[in-house]
Amino acid sequence: MRIGFFTKLFTVILMLLLCAIGIMVFQALGIRDEVASSEDHRYRSLLLAGELFQSSEDLTRMARTYVTTGNPIYKHYFFDILDIREGIKPRLQNYPNTYWHLADVGKSSGAELGKPVSLFEMMRNEGLDKQETALLWEAKIKSDKLSILEKQAIAAVDEIQARSKDKLTIHWSPERHLSIDLLFGERYFAEKAAVIAPIRQFTNLLDTRTQAEVKDGLARLHRHILVVMTLIVIAMLAIAATIFYARRAVLLPLAQLRSEVMNIAQGDYAARCHIETHNELAELGSAFNSMALAIEQDIGKREETEESMRQAIAIFENSSEAMIVTDAKNIIVTVNPAFTRVTGYTSDEIVGQSSDILNAGLQGEFSLLAMKTSLVANGYWEGEMEGRRKNKDVYIEWRTMNAIYNDDGSVHRWVTLFSDITAKKKSEELIWQQANFDPLTSLPNRHMFHNQLKQEIKKADRFGSSIALILLDLDNFKAVNDVYGHNVGDLLLKEAAWRLSSCVRGVDQVARLGGDEFTVILGSLKSLISINRVIRDILHRMSEPFKLGDEIAYVSASIGVTFYPHDGAGAESLVRNADQAMYAAKNKGRNCFSYFTHTLQEAAQIRMRLAGDLRSALAGNQLQLHYQPIVEFETGRVHKAEALLRWHHPKLGLVSPVDFISIAEETGMIIDIGDWVFRMAAQQAKVWRASHSAPFQISINTSPVQFRKNVDLHKPWLDFLQELELPGQSIAIEITEGLLMDVSPDVTSKLRSFREAGIEVSMDDFGTGYSSLSYLKKFDIDHLKIDQSFVQSLAPDSDDLALCEAIIVMAHKLGIKVIAEGIETSEQRDLLALAGCDYGQGNLFSEPLPADRFEKFMNEAQSEANRSVLM
Asked: Which residues, other chains included, contact 663 with Cβ-Cβ below 8 Å and sequence gap of 6+?
């Protein structure tokens, strides 16, 4: 039998025996209490019967004494006894059998009165059976009849005293003798005997019942005591059997096992234990034998391990790559000699310090976040980073980090290998510089210019903006070269490059194509006035004298200007158009500029007409909001939508927001249009929150113009939400990264007002503008919207996927939700969902729809979701 089973069996049996003994003892105590209760009930019942009898005697005594003596005090005692017995007056505590003693007690000021309760009520409360109650009630009735006779005698005496005040006359009055005969006559004694008879029957009946109950209780008590003794004997036998089994099946095998363990401790690894019992100790003996065998085998493996450790130490000490071993908290445990050669720190100087001392303040926040994310997720990271030597010199290293884990999955050690690649990086930077920049002017060369132009075109596509390409050629530069030589010509080119760069913004791109040709890329155009100002400034600066050493040279510039997307669809066509416009300027006489054909003039006329028509669009109900669903990836449900503005022109048809939003911003009409958009979206949100989803939210796009100092948009908007009884969470405003560049108090206060009202803030087209983590922290952004340019080319293992994953991880670390825009395919949706993106938006789910069609779309989506849940 197994020890565990025997132990459980013995425990169960012993617990059952103990429970049975406890139950029997408890029942025996209950029987004892029942016997005592029966005796107590008999005692109290006899007291009540005695009190009934005694009260009848006391009434007789008081009535006779009053009739005999005429003393009114006995009449008073008579009626006191009746009132106490009937529960009219309160009875004294510990009421005795005789009223005489009661009267004496009543004279004491310290006597305590109880509650009024009739004697028969006390009898009923005692729990007498029907026969006992009937006998006492019979005695009570007969006692009351006797009291009637006593009251008649007392009334006769009262009448005599009322008629005459002569005590002698009263004493010898015939009526008084009649009263005495009434209380001492045969009728009175017969009535008295009738009271005593049922009381005696009650007493006999009570004694008989009590004796039967006591006898039955004692018999049951004796039986319980016998059962308890039997159970105690059984328990003792069980304990004896357990002791015998424990000695044979436990103690002897344990002694044998101890002996063999001592042999192992003394170095006899051939020791084996053979236990013949079939229980856990036999299994323990088998495990002991396996352990002894494993110890024998481990001796040889230990020697092999020691040899491997010696080889590992040799590799660690002689490796050409620097190695650091840190604990889970990045405290350095050990380093190799190569580490000292690279950093200058010796082992004694660096061990015990944080490894951050080597890179503190050198890494960008985003880089550190990406590295930590990889280490936490994969326990591995490899990449380039900067380090600091002991002499404070900064170098570039290629670092590889790996985690060593404990058995529970926690990090035990970090092993870091790195090598100094500073020289290699400088060589690569030199090659890149030579490949992309003009060595004379340090401006981007033709190759870099084309890349920059393509990037600006992509940015313009994303933002729906325009760019201007300026192509500049120096007039009479060949003559300078011919007269003063190429060295002076090079000085002129350098000065021209500096002047050209000083005429444009820092974000604009200036490049030298070669010879005396320069280009300027002006992105994010807002108005023609700024372009004309830049061109005139360039012409003016280029026409100023050039002091070149001892020589002064005079040149001018011919400029050609073209626009994207108005004049061309690609970089090559734009360069070709700008070149043609530049030659047109030269043909005009030089030192001037020319637009590519008449495209700009035509575009300006169109914009002017659109600006005029746009002023009446709002009043003419030509504007309409379309809604595009924002789908939650985790549930597939639609609780958000983006409101997109559409203009139904009476003549031109549907006008793209790209064509009229910039006009609205330039003319200031965006203020009224934006207010109309907010109010329409809020009203629609109230409808859909009531009919579809309580937390439904609509996002609206805002313009930086709406956040200017003289524009007060937040107060009317918040008042309108209160008027509609809508919470702030029903609306989200989308802002651009460009707005966050303006950290003026006006912008900050408006955004803070929206946040305090519960209105969420989303950053639109994230990653395409002036992205900065500090802005995300400062302005409490709720959502980041990944620009569709990153989503369009999304594919497994692509750079765009890596960027999206990095943005998602960074946002989640900052507590920000992520929405991906422009999802067109199921593959894009699946990759983004797998990367942890929270929401998706794009034509894959639905194109922007009018309110009625969007409501139908939500009904169908809800039905589909319900069917999915049921399936």
From this structure: 607, 610, 611, 614, 669
